């Protein structure tokens, strides 16, 4: 037992997602009620006793930033959230009382999204006599440390949430597998990005109601100035490379072709990881051992080095990912790979942008890495597991998923909503994002030992490959050797 606990403590050092991966993409999902105000919560047993049915229980749920409404009983928080949105004119100058009337299938402002999401969750839980209490443990490293301590002390909420750390928790045996009928329902009806990264040994251990995956974005104005068709997306790596080179030539030092952020941090791994997956490579095997120097990875890094030449010096591997994305926002680079929030942000700042699935390598197949995916899981030590699973079931209900669709910020994961003709017509770009969430979608892996150190070895090797004339195969061989010295 001591050995298991010590190995788990390592998870507190796990890398955390980049800035935009932590919820910068906006909304999550929930269905709205036709009334402005949710009904009062029914009384419930909050003693923490385990129960055989979800009736008459209180569950504790960790906040997800995209749909957070505060800390405390959910029934008490919603009206406060509504009034604060109306009152906060500086932050939400266009939110008025009329915005709290919502009809499914009609557009919904992103600012009021958390209110409607949690209103529907409250209603669905009340129908099962479940009271919901929200807690906030932060995000990133702070959240990982608190969850780690909670597991060790066997004092953990009924539902926890997180991103890159969650697969590791599943592998450590700390999470409750989804009931078989629930898991099958999810596999049959939900896009893989919402659950596939949380599948381990044939069981599902987590669900994200509004995960992100990366797409290719481009600035149509810059592409047109290079003599390219601004409405045509490159579909292969060769086409992408040719396009970024033409844009760079046309820019004459004022703007560049761009490509993908490749900094030695989680923000970089999450973005160029999609290229690794597409080309049949990977970061680790199913035992958590590094696979840095595979032939597919060498080919991918060689392609990235070619893309690097279509950037201002040092930008592609900059340690600050914000600098890279600022370059796109300022019209300094034309192409980039990023999560779905890039669409809304580009529209807001006046960029005429294109969005498409990521181009494929010569022998590659569609694939992706989840980004900005808040996975919800039930810990082994949760006191009210059945009620907790009822909460997660509500997250992929048609009501919740329709609300996500109506914001236009993220795409729904429920097939019956995302594949409607009405959705394809109203949100053609987000429908492309939905398609990208299908197939070979992965999360970043957890290495067997000293996760953050091993990741840094790979990140530094990629940076060295991009920024020097060293032999890429030799650089990755060295990183593999040093990583194996840690993990084995």
UniProtKB/TrEMBL annotation:
Pfam families the record matches: SBP_bac_1
Domain of life of the organism encoding this protein: Bacteria
Low complexity: compositionally biased ranges: 32-46
KW Signal (keyword) present: yes
Alphabetically ordered keywords of this record: Signal, Transport
Keyword Aminoacyl-tRNA synthetase: no
Signal peptide, first to last residue: 1-21
Region of interest (Disordered), residue spans: 26-57
PANTHER family given in the database record: MALTOSE-BINDING PERIPLASMIC PROTEIN, MALTOSE_MALTODEXTRIN-BINDING PERIPLASMIC PROTEIN
Family, as annotated: Belongs to the bacterial solute-binding protein 1 family.
Protein name stated in the entry: ABC transporter substrate-binding protein
């Amino acid at each position: 037992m001591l050995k298991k606990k010590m190995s788990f403590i390592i998870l507190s050092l796990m890398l955390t997602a980049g800035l935009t991966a932590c919820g910068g993409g906006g909304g999550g999902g929930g269905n709205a009620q036709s009334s402005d105000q949710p009904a009062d919560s029914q009384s419930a047993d909050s003693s923490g006793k385990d129960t055989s049915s979800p009736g008459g229980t209180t569950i504790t749920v960790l906040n997800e930033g995209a749909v957070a409404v505060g800390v405390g009983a959910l029934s008490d928080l919603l009206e406060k959230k509504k009034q604060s949105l109306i009152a906060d004119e500086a932050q939400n100058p266009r939110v008025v009382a009329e915005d709290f009337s919502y009809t499914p299938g009609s557009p919904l402002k992103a600012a009021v999204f958390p209110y409607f999401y949690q209103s529907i969750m409250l209603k669905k839980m009340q129908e099962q006599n479940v009271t919901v209490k929200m807690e906030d443990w932060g995000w990133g490293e702070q959240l990982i440390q608190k969850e780690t301590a909670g597991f060790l002390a066997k004092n953990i909420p009924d539902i926890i949430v997180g991103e890159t750390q969650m697969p590791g928790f599943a592998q450590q045996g700390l999470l409750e597998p989804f009931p078989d009928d629930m898991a099958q329902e999810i596999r049959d009806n939900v896009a893989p990005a919402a659950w596939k990264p949380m599948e381990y040994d044939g069981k599902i251990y987590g669900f994200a109601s509004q995960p992100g995956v990366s797409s290719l974005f481009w600035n149509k104005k810059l592409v047109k100035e290079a003599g390219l068709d601004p409405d045509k997306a490159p579909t292969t790596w060769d086409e992408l490379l040719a396009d970024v080179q033409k844009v760079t030539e046309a820019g004459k030092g004022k703007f560049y072709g761009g490509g993908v952020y490749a900094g030695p941090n989680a923000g970089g791994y999450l973005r160029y990881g999609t290229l690794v997956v597409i080309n049949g490579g990977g970061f680790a095997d199913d035992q958590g051992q590094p696979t840095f120097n595979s032939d597919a990875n060498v080919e991918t890094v060689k392609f990235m080095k070619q893309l690097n030449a279509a950037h201002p010096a040092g930008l592609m591997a900059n340690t600050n990912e914000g600098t890279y994305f600022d370059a796109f926002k300022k019209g300094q680079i034309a192409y980039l790979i990023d999560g779905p929030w890039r669409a809304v942000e580009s529209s807001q700042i006046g960029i005429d942008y294109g969005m498409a699935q990521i181009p494929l390598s010569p022998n590659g197949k569609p694939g992706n890495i989840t980004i900005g995916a808040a996975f919800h899981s039930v810990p082994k030590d949760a006191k009210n597991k059945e009620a907790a699973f009822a909460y997660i079931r509500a997250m992929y209900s048609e009501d919740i998923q329709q609300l996500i669709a109506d914001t236009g910020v993220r795409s729904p994961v429920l097939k019956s909503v995302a594949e409607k003709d009405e959705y394809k017509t109203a949100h053609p770009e987000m429908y492309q994002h939905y398609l990208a969430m299908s197939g070979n979608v992965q999360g970043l892996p957890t290495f067997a030992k000293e996760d953050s150190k091993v990741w840094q070895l790979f990140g530094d090797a990629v940076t060295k490959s991009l920024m020097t004339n060293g032999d890429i195969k030799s650089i990755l061989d060295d990183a593999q050797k040093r990583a194996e010295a840690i993990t084995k």
